[in-house]
Specification:
This protein has 153 residues and is of the alpha/beta class. The protein has a domain of 102 residues: Nucleotidyltransferase, domain 5 (2-Layer Sandwich). It is 27% helix and 19% strand. It is built from four helices and seven strands. Strand 5, helix 4 and strand 6 form a beta-alpha-beta unit. The termini are far apart.
Length: 153
């Protein structure tokens, strides 16, 4: 009688040829579906040009206030309004908004909060000074006035 050898079953290796395709499809999916803009502007913005600019180092400490004429004039009127995050707020609500923004920061950075005012160039100084006085009342003393590139001289 002869010896019979047991047939060993060889399991095929898992093919990794399609893994790069899957990775690139996922990468493409997340690139397409990611939203880069944090806020929808509800006010018109034509930012004025500046003669001197200074670049900021720590942008995580900045909160933005947009001042301008509302885009939806039938709902909000034609007077300049203040937008904080994704909502239009009244001037007296700025103190509460600053305190909420301050609470979101680390405790060591709360005194370093910076408010960036992005005001439309056609807005009169009255609403801007009202916002400044409310910021003063909220003890937010660091204020930036946003502008676009330098004016050629």
């Amino acid at each position: 009688m002869s010896k019979f050898k047991k047939n060993q079953k060889v399991e095929p290796a898992i093919s990794t040829a399609s893994l790069p395709d899957i990775v690139f499809m996922l990468l493409f999916f997340f690139m397409v579906t990611t939203v880069l803009r944090e806020q929808d502007l509800l006010v018109e913005q034509k930012i004025p040009q500046a003669t001197q600019l200074q670049k900021l180092q720590k942008k995580t400490l900045i909160s933005y206030l947009f001042i301008g004429k509302p885009k939806n004039t039938s709902l909000y009127g034609t007077e300049p309004r203040v937008q904080a995050n994704d909502a239009l707020i009244n001037t007296p609500e700025i103190v509460q908004w600053v305190n909420q923004e301050r609470d979101m920061l680390a405790e060591s950075d709360r005194g370093l909060i910076t408010i960036s005012l992005k005001a439309d160039r056609d807005v009169k100084m009255g609403p801007i000074s009202d916002v400044q006085s409310e910021l003063r009342e909220a003890d937010a003393r660091r204020i930036l006035y946003a502008s676009i590139g330098k004016v050629p001289q």
